[in-house]
Amino acid sequence: MTSADRADMSVAEAPGTKICDEARAYVDQVLHEKRIAIHVLLARCESPIEQQLAAALWARWDCRVRELGSGMDAPLGGDDCRVVSIEPQRMIVVANARYRADFVVYRSTKGQGVDPLIVVEADGREFHDRTQSQACRDRRRDRAMVLQGMRVLRFSGSEIYGDPDACAAEIDALLRSSR
User: Fold this and answer.
1) pLDDT, one tens digit for every residue, the chain (179 residues)
2) How far, in whole angstroms, is CA 153 from its chain's centroid?
3) With 57 labelled, which of 66, 77, 149, 171 sits at a CA distance of 20 to 30 A?
């Protein structure tokens, strides 16, 4: 059985389970809503590498969609009362210039507002590093964001295709180090 087969399996079909009908129906509904939510999130990504990274972040943080199509939220866990939000294709203004980031990771703390924290770029070869001018533009943009106090993580398509979970782990590590 593939992982896709297991993901599509409802609680009612799980071997050896003894679950009451009400609990089974509730879990099936929650799983259905999560499946819809991840599909909405993935649809907002502009490339397959962005979709892979979004799926890895979703799995790592067991995220919830905040409102249809607007990104995802997840509690950081443990004693941490903060919530992390991931916004795909987010417009940001840096030094009077508008940029669209592949992902912006925010952290919100109860009663203290929202703090843009990390800009994540997923660079496919066809749009980045293909020409020297594209590479220079990306580096200038990164420096402008860093000067505004943002942290920037840039992953190549090869890194994401090779191990999307490792890329998600780096984002998580940077997020947790900036407490």
Assistant:
1) 444 444 455 544 566 667 788 988 898 888 888 888 788 888 889 999 999 999 998 888 766 545 434 455 555 555 454 567 788 998 888 888 898 999 988 776 655 556 667 999 998 876 545 678 888 888 888 999 999 888 999 999 999 999 999 999 999 888 877 65
2) 13
3) 149
Global confidence as pTM: 0.74
d(CA 108, CA 106): 7
Cα torsion angle, 52, 53, 59, 64, sign: negative
Phi, psi of 17 (to 5 degrees): -90, 145
Q: Parallel, antiparallel, or unpaired: how do β-strands 151-156 and 113-123 relate?
A: parallel
99 CB-side CA count, 13 A: 21
Name every residue whose Cβ is closer than 8 Å to that of residue 170 and which is 6 or more positions away in sequence.
Answer: 153, 155
Give every CB contact of residue 101 below 8 A, 6+ residues apart in sequence: 89, 90, 91, 92, 119, 120, 121
For 93, residues 6+ apart whose C-beta sits below 8 A from its C-beta are: 99
